Amino acid sequence: MTFFLKRVLIFTSIASIGYCIVFLLWTNLVPFQAFKKNLNYKMGSYGSMFTRIQEADTTRDVDILVLGSSHAYRGFDPRIFEEYGIKLFNLGPSNQTPKQANILVKKYLDQMSPELVIYEVYPGIFQGDGLESSLDLIANGPLNSDLISMTISLNHVKAYNAMIKRLYMTKTGQYDAFN
Amino acid sequence: MLFNSFDFAIFLPIVFILYWFVFKKSLKLQNALIVIASYVFYGWWDWRFLSLILFSTLVDFLVGRSLGQENRETKRRVLLWISIIVNLGFLGFFKYFNFFLESFQDAFSLLGMDIGGRALSIVLPVGISFYTFQTLSYTIDVYKRKLEPTKDFIAFAAFVSFFPQLVAGPIERATHLLPQFYKHRQFNYALAVNGCRQILWGFFKKLVIADNCAEFANQIFNNSEAYGGSTLFLGALFFTFQIYGDFSGYSDIAIGTSRLFGFDLMKNFAFPYFSRDIAEFWRRWHISLSTWFRDYVYIPLGGSRGSRWKQIRNVFIIFIVSGFWHGANLTFILWGTLNALYFLPLLLLNLNRSNLEVVAHQKILPSLKELAQIGITFVLTVLAWVAFRAETISHAGQIYAGIFDYSLFSIPREVLSSKMLVCIALVLIFVLMEWIGRRREFAIEYLFDSYPRWIRWSSYMMIIFLMGMFMQTEETPFIYFQF
After folding, report:
1. Is the peptide bond before B300 cis (omega within 30 degrees of 0)?
2. Between A4, A7, A15, which is nearest B460 by CB?
3. At what angle do helices A145-154 and A98-112 cross, to 10 degrees?
4. Is residue B308 assigned to a domain?
5. By C-alpha distance, which of A123, A56, A143 is closest to A93?
6. Are residues B272 and B151 in the same domain?
7. CA separation for the pair A19, B468 (Å, rounded)
8. Which residues in A lie closer than 8 A to residue B464 (C-beta atoms)?
9. I need a surface site. Which of A132, B184, B247, B252 has the fewest CB within 10 A?
10. Inside any domain, residue B158
């Protein structure tokens, strides 16, 4: 019995490492997206998350920080606020749920020290799992323990796959080289 | 609780550890743990329906005890009927009440009469058809004196509610499963490993094959009026693999899980799509239900003995009842009737037991004749699944009309996509693996034979990788839960 449990443990450990190796070989060598069904990994993405994270890393002392779904990032244009002398930073990606907003707030609130935080919500945002926004954040957002916790709490195979890819991209310097 | 849920991934190890480490020394405590775990497993879905299981258990336990003490045939028969009426009464109410009400309303409205009555909003308790048949097998076997009535209520409750097979089978016979609850169970390493292997294969069938095929089957069946013959046939093919992957996957997980607890459940599927005729298909598909109907309905009716007319009548009864067991819809009756029609020529020509061995038993590939037989049987099965999957009889009729059309010989361009081609590739890999392992209880069992550990473990790892990369990510309930 104990022998069985030990074997299960050993197999699980080896299988986890093996999975990562096969996964990375497969995703790097196979060119067709259809063969990578459960890997949604887009750097840059349609909400330009990558660029905004790069900018966010160097931005300090804003007047307003905006968070929320696509309604937020398509609804609050920093250029218009700038015309009125207000410094606004928009951190809203598609389909952002409170989980992802929390990661961004934790990372940037102190650094940006905004006078006002606008968090845009609508009923649908509390019903979704936030997968789309999480995948966007995993591929482009700041890699820290909060991002890893979010991946685990999401407990979704696409999130785990994206996290394996993200760790690989960061480790090999491909994340930093993207631009 | 679904097997393919995170809850089950937590639940199973907890029960396993408690079972083998905490309650190892006491058979009674182990059985009690199984009852509690099974009720938690079932109550996770809807705890209110636990009362039905408990009531069924109580009735059949008491009927069984009384049958053991009673020698007068009339009283024994009354007791048997009490069990049948209670169990089939529950089943009839929850599953068939609205169907019969609507059928009566339709029939009388044809005569210009309105008999009134309103359909009730009835929730079908998950697995009711399965545990009802399982507990009925106990009463019938005790009545027939094939089995001693049990005095151990906990063991009996565990037999009725055993969580691995409670909601979708295999429908166990009391003669096979109940005695296993009386015996002290020893942990068997080889059996447990084989159980894990079968669970893995079951998950692959469900998450990769069934759920991916379901996406295309649903797309085509739900928009059937928009598609030509070849696309509709393709939809039927996808459903053919969906239902096999879904149901046999569930059975594999159930059997594998039982092995982890030292139990042996009966085989439920034996590579049915490699059958050479319909009779063989029915010996290989949902074996626990087919044999249940054979033993408790077909043989008591006279089986294949008696006059030709009686034989034909019995075949139709068994297939139609089997179809109706699946659900209160005329489509299931049509499915059963089609299978009866397929089976009839074999019975009349005494060919229904001509293919008992595994196909191409000593060979790698089948002969051309065998291949043709498999192909014909497979196509017949696919056509029958159309009736099973269709929403209504007219929906089935519309799909059949679409399939038997010149457009059957066109390329189904309207639905072809790279995603679909990947799914087809996965199905082909699956069929190949099933062919290689067709002599065993489940496809990847042969890996255990003589291959070194690194090959075995690499194979499991590849299956896990295929699951991680290609599984459908939405939690999809098993089809047979609704039956």
Report:
1. no
2. A15
3. 170
4. no
5. A56
6. no
7. 9
8. 15, 19
9. B184
10. yes
Q: How many domains does chain B have?
A: 2
Residues B411 and B478 in one domain: yes
pLDDT tens by residue, B256-308? 999 999 999 999 999 999 999 999 999 999 999 999 999 999 999 988 788 88
A34–B464 C-beta distance less than 8 A:
no
Domain that holds residue B95: 6-185
Q: Which two tokens stand for residue B118?
A: 């309103």
Instruction: List the structure tokens of B448.
Output: 């255990």
Selected residue of B5, B461, B470, B474 to mutate for chain A interface (largest A Cβ count, 10 A)? B461
Q: What is the mean pLDDT of residues B140-163?
A: 95
Q: Which helix (H) or strand (E) holds A64?
A: strand A64-67
Give phi and psi for A31, each to the nearest 5.
-80, -20
CB contact under 8 A, B461 and A15: yes
Q: How sure is the predictor about B328, in pLDDT bands with cuts at 50, 70 and 90?
A: confident
* Residue B289 belongs to a domain: no
Beginning with the edge strand found earlier in the chain, give each strand of the sheet holding A64-67 in spatial order. Answer: A88-90, A64-67, A116-119
Range A86-103 average pLDDT: 85
Q: Please state the ipTM of this predicted complex.
A: 0.85
Active centre residues of B (catalytic): 326
CB contact under 8 A, B464 and A26: no
Structure tokens belonging to residue B230: 């070849």
